[in-house]
Amino acid sequence: MSNLQSDQLLQMETTCGSLLYELQMIWDEVGESEAERDKMLLELERECLEVYRRKVDQANRCRAQLRQAIADNEAELATICSAMGERPVHIRQSDQNSGRLKEELAAIIPQLEEMRKRKCDRRNQFLEVLEQIQRISNEICKSTDYNSSKIVVDETDLSMRKFEELHRQLHALQKEKSDRLKQVLDHLSTLNSLCLVLGMDFKQTINEVHPSLNDSEGTKNISDDTIERMDSAIQKLLEVKIKRMRRLQDLATTMLELWNLMDTPIGEQQIFQNVTCKIAASEQEITEPNILSEEFINYVEEEVSKLEDLKASKMKELVLKKRSEMEEICRRTHMVAEIDNGMEYAIEAIESGAVDPACILEQIELQIAKVKEEAFSRKEILEKVEKWLAACEEESWLEEYNRDENRYNAGRGAHLTLKRAEKARAVVNKLPAMIDALGTKVRTWERERGIEFLYDGVRLLSMLEEYNILRQEKEQERKRQRDQKKLQGQLIAEQEALFGSKPSPSKPQSGKKGPRMSIGGANGRRLSLGGAMLQTPKPDLPHPAKLTPHLRPSKKGGLLSHHQDDSCVALSAGRRGLDIAGLPVKKHSFNAANSHEIESPMTRKPFSPLSAAMLPKVNPNFLEDLNKVQGGTMQKTLPNSNTPLATPSKLACVTDEDNRTPKEKMPIPMPTTPSTISVSMQTATTPAPAIATVLFGANKIEDNRTPKEKMPIPVPTTPSTISVPMQTATTPAPAIATVLFGADKIEEMHEEVEYSFEERRAGFVIPKTHVISVVQV
Amino acid sequence: MTAVLPTSAGRELSNPPSDGISNLRFSNHSDNLLVSSWDRTVRLYEASANVLRGEFMHAGAVLDCCFHDDSSGFSACVDNTVRRLVFSTGKEDILGRHDAPVRCVEYSYAAGQVITGSWDKTLKCWDPRGASGQERTLVGTYPQPERVYSLSLVGNRLVVATAGRHVNVYDLRNMSQPEQKRESSLKYQTRCVRCYPNGTGFALSSVEGRVAMEFFDLSEAGQAKKYAFKCHRKSEAGRDTVYPVNAIAFHPVYGTFATGGCDGYVNVWDGNNKKRLYQYTKYPTSIAALSFSRDGRLLAVASSYTFEEGDKPHEPDAIYVRSVNEVEVKPKPKVYPAPPP
After folding, report:
1. B131 to chain A, closest Cα gap in Å
2. Residues paired with B279 in a beta bridge
3. A143-to-A138, A172, A184 alpha-carbon distances in Å
4. pLDDT digits over A453-465, tens only?
5. Complete domains list, chain A, with CATH
6. Per-residue model confidence (pLDDT) at position B186
7. Which one, of A667, A694, A574, lies nearest residue A622 by Cα?
8. What percent of chain A stands above pLDDT 70?
9. C-alpha span between A151 and A43 (Å, rounded)
């Protein structure tokens, strides 16, 4: 190259020399003056210089431009580096390096390009992140409008640090977004459950909050505003829920009260089980769908109003029911219900519509509460009174027992009676202390409350006093009797000495003493003596009403008739007596059954009319008891007669019952004439083999006998003759004996064969041959 | 408080018999109900539809009836005859006669025989496939110690309860003599005997408000399981009234059983756990008969005066069909497993 250039220069020089030579030649030829020639040469030289200067200037300018370019590039590079937070290493090198400018430029340009590219990338990254940030923050706070053009990247700081910072910011925003999303979903599910419970349209509810929430796939709006609105929606629904829940619970409470009041059957109640079981539930516990919906509440409300209507219509019944409830409490605690008269008025008032029944009901309920309270305070004393009364019963039994001449005879059950007597004595010994204690308790009670302690309307203290007086009287009486007995004993001893031993008329019970007898006897006797002890010390049987004067019925009641009450007491007392005796007595209502089982527990004799209807009157019961006593005395004679009868006791009972019917109709209590009846019994016990002919009639009798007093059907031939003498049964005439005999035959025959209800109804009778075979067996 | 019986008593069937109901039974194949009565009729009801499907008039009061299949049945009549009733044609023919009123009739699916018990102190087996006429249908006559009061079948076992508290247990495959001769463990007249559905024993009720649960197994361990309990009693104002237990019906699914007494109550019992499961509201008068439908979802109750107090005015006879709730008949979960009775 250099060779080539020097060649060119050389060539140019030669060209210049040859040109100058040509010029000289031309000049010589022209004959130019020397001065002209010099002038020409000077001009030539000047022009040459001019050209050189121009070229140098141009080159100089070019160099300056180059330098400028390098400086610019370096500056830009530095800027970029600094913006990117990188160290610009090459700048210093270029300073030191005084190499060619063009090389330098060429070296710097790719660097610059590289940096520019990187910057651009970085910037894009920034943009991206920023855009995301912008978007999220837009989502979060809806207020700032979303506008991508507004994104400005700070070109001066594109460092990694800044980038990381932005990233952190982005992450934070993303987290917030997911948090909010979760919150929104939570709210949505809360709303959903609330809507479900309240029976509202969930979709509509959330549409009202924000339409985007309804979209199951699309993005949900999570802005502050939405969340706030959701919050308020939830709050609102919650308030509604609580309000409705209270309403429902109120309704349920009312419903329960009404059910309780009206004894609504379980089946009807079960329909509303889901309501009533939520009666005490808290807000969170109520999750059942639709349970708080308007319709459901209306439905429950309807039911309640239905019940209310029912209640209104039943109010009278309810009032009566409440009243009987109260009376029951009073009866149990031996208090006298004070409201009876008032109640009658109240019911009249309800009937006439003058008074609001609810008000009366409330009043009664109040009274019941009061009575209950009082009953509670009386409880302790009442228990003591019970004990006292029981002891009194035992005392009277013991007294009677002591009077029994044959009490030490060894018979069946005698050991039990002995045991009972032993216990009774112990109890009697405790009686005075018991009365003292009771008296003190009652006095304390009365002092505390400032009212008298009434027992069935009678002051308990006066009852105690009365008892004490009676006791004293009895003591004297007993003493007198003892003296008399001693005297009598002496008399008998004297007579025996004179005439030899003779059965005393005062001791007709010579044979063994059957346990049934003793029980039956004890029944009647104890009761009668219980009355005698407390009322009149007369030995004969008192009027039934006097039996148990200390157990007074509520006289103002009017619900129970006087007689009924007495009978109940008498009967229950009798039954208790049996229980105490510890005999294997089943508590059958039917007395025949009773005696039967006691008498022959081994023979398992079937009996028919077990379910005897509750006897409606008292007197019959009492008289039945009397008859039992008589039957008992009759019974005693039986073992002597050596009859092959299986169950004579049954006979006794049956005749008693037959006799009873007319007696009931008689106003005069039957005097005790056991001796005459015992005669008839003896005739009755003789077995009669020739029976078959009368059998059918017998069945008829049996059947007609059961319905007792009602007796609607007149019976053919044989029974009619029976019914006539029955009327006169009280007078001990020989005629009766024969009639009874006839009746007995029938009864006896009847009792030999058991019949089922169906057989009786069908009138089915076992043929004679069968009977005989049975008898033989 | 009110005289009107609550609806919980069940649906009352229309067209009830006009006199005492002696028995009623559900079919083993449908909800048809066969009812025999003292008004001399046997009636066939479709219980679920409350329709009277047919009626047969007899010469005397009908004391018992049973199904053969859904198309025919048998009746036991006071006029000593055993009849076959064909429902589709309404025809009846006489299967045979006893010497006294026929008290009860059962059909054994195992033996394909009709078994009747009578007050003539015999049990007779009949083959209903034989042509009409005693000589061709009578399979055998088996004397009983007393008048037959109640019969019950389970599998090949037949339990016969008679007057005098006798109980005979037969194997239908060998009727020549009783497999077991027993005496009722109750002291009073037997009213009803019913075998457990699982075939291990029988329940027996008496006129004195008591039910005995007995077992066929004669071993000491088997007999140790037997017991009796009191029921259908009332205690009122210090008086206890005891009522006859007229009817026992076992639930076909759970093996629990219902008893009905003259007190008008129906009680449901769990014999295994010795618990009373349920008491239905009182019916107007005595419960004369009870029957569960084949799936145990229905219980037919005959509320009809059973003449326990002689001829007297009484509530009208009625049949109630009540749907049975599972709680009423399902045994309560036991504390420990007990062997089934």
Report:
1. 30
2. B267
3. 8, 19, 19
4. 878 777 888 888 8
5. 17-92+99-142 (no CATH), 175-292 (no CATH), 364-405+414-496 (1.20.58.1520)
6. 93
7. A574
8. 57
9. 69
Of A571, A606, A764, the CB nearest to B239: A571
How far is CA B149 from its chain centroid? 11
Contact B35, B21 (CB under 8 A): yes
Report A:71-90 residues touching B (Cβ under 8 A).
none
Of the pLDDT bands very low, low, confident and very high (cuts 50, 70, 90), residue A142 is low
A248-267 core/surface letters (b: 16 or more CB in 10 A; e: else): bbebbebbbebbebbebeee
- Using pLDDT thresholds of 50, 70 and 90, give the confidence band for residue B154: very high
Q: What value of ipTM does the predicted structure carry?
A: 0.88
Distance of alpha carbon A623 from alpha carbon B270, whole angstroms: 43
Q: From the CA atom positions of chain B, what is the Rg in Å?
A: 19
Q: What is the pLDDT of residue B107?
A: 94
A613 at interface of B, judged by CB pairs closer than 8 A: yes
Q: Minimal Cα–Cα distance from B340 to chain A, Å?
A: 31
| B212 and B192 Cβ atoms separated by less than 8 Å | no
Of A569, A610, A706, the CB nearest to B244: A610
Q: What is the pLDDT of residues B242-287, one digit of tens each?
A: 999 999 999 999 999 999 999 999 999 999 989 999 999 999 999 9
Element holding B102 (H helix, E strand): strand B102-108
Cβ–Cβ gap B307/A267 under 8 Å? no
Minimal CA separation from B260 to chain A, in Å: 14
User: From the CA of B290, how many Å to the nearest CA of chain A?
Assistant: 17
CB–CB contacts below 8 A, A to B: 115
Single-letter code of the amino acid located at A629: V
Nearest residue to B248 via CA among B236, B274, B266 = B266
Which ranges constitute the DSSP H helices of chain B?
A: 134-137, 220-224, 326-329
Tell me A277's DSSP state.
T
Q: What mean pLDDT is predicted for residues A508-520?
A: 40
Distance of CA A656 to the CA centre of its chain: 53
Residue A353 has pLDDT above 70, yes or no: no
B207 → closest Cβ in A575, A610, A764: A610
Q: How close does chain A come to B38, measured CA to CA in Å?
A: 9
| Residues of A whose CB is below 8 A from B281 | 265
Buried (b) or exposed (e) across A174-186, using 16+ Cβ within 10 A? eeebeebeeebee
* Distance in Å, alpha carbon of B162 to nearest chain A alpha carbon: 10
For every residue of A682-738, which 3-state class applies, written as one string? HHHHCCCCCCHHHHHHHHHHHHHHCCHHHCCCCCCHHHHHHHHHHHCCCCCCHHHHH
Contacts of B103 in chain A (CB under 8 A): 758
pTM of the model as a whole: 0.39
Check A611 against B38: CB less than 8 A apart: no
Please answer whether residues B56 and B85 qualify as being in contact, where contact means their C-beta atoms are separated by less than 8 angstroms.
yes
Are A707 and B147 an interchain contact pair (Cβ–Cβ within 8 Å)?
no
* Cβ <8 Å between B119 and A614: no
Q: Kindly report, residue by residue over A759-771, the tens digit of the pLDDT.
A: 999 888 887 554 4
In A, minimum Cα distance to B145 occurs at: A774
Q: Is A466 left (phi over 0), alpha (psi -120 to 50) or beta?
A: alpha
By the 8 A CB rule, do B245 and B232 touch? yes
Lowest-confidence pick of A334-343, B23-32, B157-166: A334-343
Q: Testing the interface with B: which of A758, A766, A769, A775 to mutate, by most B Cβ within 10 A?
A: A758
Please answer yes or no on whether A606 and B6 come within 8 Å at the CB atom. Answer: no
